[in-house]
Automatic annotation (TrEMBL):
Keywords, alphabetical: Apoplast, Disulfide bond, Manganese, Metal-binding, Secreted, Signal
GO CC annotation terms, alphabetical: apoplast
Location of the Cupin type-1 domain: 53-199
The name this protein goes by in its record: Germin-like protein
Matching SUPFAM superfamilies: RmlC-like cupins
Disulfide bridge positions per record: C24-C39
Native organism: Escallonia rubra
Length: 209
């Protein structure tokens, strides 16, 4: 009886190990689907698929928001494909800001490594959670909630942000309202802004309509 149990247990262990897939390095030549990229053939995988050097240098903050986000998502770092994780670098010049935005597909953890950042998010109950973060501080932003980051120092501030998805998605509220061809009358009606304000914001962000 004991031999039978041991034999069956061994089969189960062998079977479970056989079904484990250590990784699924994304094949960027294939289309991305809801579950991510198709897996690259294991024989073509190298150590470089698990190493990303693109976060060494600061991003270009010479733009309207004086900020830059350098992503290491599945599209840039195929090794994270299928693993439920990714990372990015956030650079904020003095007065820099990452406007109100959401990540529909992931929660976010932010770690400040230089300077100081004022960060916050708004819950679905419209409660505001706001904190001035210093070097070494960490803040969590739950999935799908509007949040932002602002440089709170007179020097360049840097943070690294990790996500609970290899493709967290991004929607910036200002761009969704004023950087496309959504008719101005609808924007005015749904935001309670006057026509002149909507026109001015569309002019700044490149929207039409």
């Amino acid at each position: 009886m004991l031999r039978t149990i041991f034999f069956l247990s061994s089969l189960l262990i062998i079977s479970s190990h056989a079904s484990v897939q250590d990784f699924c390095v994304g094949d960027l030549k294939a289309p991305e689907g809801p579950a991510g990229y198709s897996c690259k053939k294991p024989s073509l995988v190298t150590v470089d698929d698990f190493v990303f050097t693109g976060l060494r240098a600061a991003g270009n903050t010479s733009n309207i928001i004086k900020a830059a986000v350098s992503p290491a998502f599945a599209a840039q770092f195929p090794g994270v494909n299928g693993l439920g994780i990714s990372i990015a670098r956030l650079d904020l010049a003095p007065s820099g800001v990452i406007p109100m935005h959401t990540h529909p597909g992931a929660s976010e953890v932010l770690v400040v490594t230089q300077g100081s950042i004022l960060a916050g998010f708004v819950s679905s109950a419209n409660d505001v959670y706001l904190k001035k973060l210093k070097r070494g501080d960490v803040m969590l932003f739950p999935q799908g909630l509007l949040h932002f980051q602002i440089n709170a120092a007179g020097v360049n501030s840097i943070a690294f942000v990790s996500f609970s998805s290899p493709s967290p998605g991004l929607q910036i509220l200002d761009f969704a309202l004023f950087a496309n061809d959504l008719p101005s009358k609808l924007v005015e009606k749904t935001t309670f802004l006057d026509a002149a304000t909507v026109k001015a914001l569309k002019a700044v962000l490149g929207g039409t309509g």
